[in-house]
Amino acid sequence: MLIGYARVSTEDQNLDLQRDALTDAGCECIFEDKASGVRDDRAGLAEALSHLRRGDCLVIWRLDRLGRRMIALLNFVEELRQRGCDFRILSGSCPIDTTTATGRLLFHISAALAENERDVIRERTIAGLASARARGRKGGRPAKLTAKQVHTARKMLADPEMTIKEVAEVFGVNRATIYRSLGLGVYAKVEGQAVKTD
């Protein structure tokens, strides 16, 4: 029996293409997930696996619908093999069918390539961020307070009657922003004087 599994990462993505391909391949049951491929708690995949019996074949549209980590993919297919089940990929760089020796070899190669692609993307991202930092650009959200506002807030808090809450209200931010911007603890000192926190 052929059992299909289809997955997209987000709710707004469409499963029709995968459903059609799995139906055309002869799948009698198709199970679906709308979840990230890195998650291990995919209900649709768990249900598909629970329906597999010895001699059945799990069919997916492309390798990345199952996941991207090579070790996890290889372990997954090995578990299927130990249960007496096969595995088939319909599309991608090359279709794979583990009922054949060539298919098993191609699966190992494809899994390695999928992991390598993810690693290359991660390395490029890290290199791009490092290059941007070297040019003085920082990632993340922009600071809520300018350097001048931070300096003004520090001077305001030098007044023992001024509280963090009052300073935050002046700049239209919350107290946590003042703490972070000035590098303060819950109760700290500014220019040698104790600061009121509320």
Protein architecture, described:
This protein is α/β, with parallel strands linked by helices and 198 residues long. The protein folds into 2 domains: 2-120, Resolvase, N-terminal catalytic domain (Rossmann fold); 147-194, no CATH class. 46% of the residues lie in helices and 14% in strands. The chain has helices spanning 16-24, 43-51, 70-82, 101-134, 147-157, 164-171, 175-182; strands spanning 2-8, 29-34, 57-60, 86-89, 96-97, 189-190, 193-194. A 5-stranded mixed β-sheet has the order 2-1-3-4-5, sandwiched between helices. A hairpin with a 6-residue loop joins strand 4 (86-89) and strand 5. The longest helix is centred in the middle third of the chain and has 34 residues, at 101-134. The protein is elongated, with a radius of gyration of 28 Å. The model is unreliable at 186-192 (pLDDT under 50).
Q: How do the helices and strands follow one another from N- to C-terminus?
A: EHEHEHEEHHHHEE
DSSP strand content: 5-15%
Query: From the alpha-carbon coordinates, what is the Rg to the nearest angstrom?
Result: 28 Å
Any idea how many domains? 2
Range of helix content: 40-55%
Shape: elongated
User: pLDDT average, as an integer?
Assistant: 81
Class from helix and strand fractions = alpha/beta
Number of strands: 7
Q: Could you say what the CATH architecture of the largest domain is? A: 3-Layer(aba) Sandwich
| Unreliably modeled segments | 186-192
Distance between the termini: 68 Å
Number of helices: 7
How do the strands of the widest beta sheet line up side by side?
2-1-3-4-5
CATH superfamily of the largest domain: Resolvase, N-terminal catalytic domain
Indicate the CATH class of the largest domain.
Alpha Beta
User: Main beta sheet: strand number and arrangement?
Assistant: 5 strands, mixed
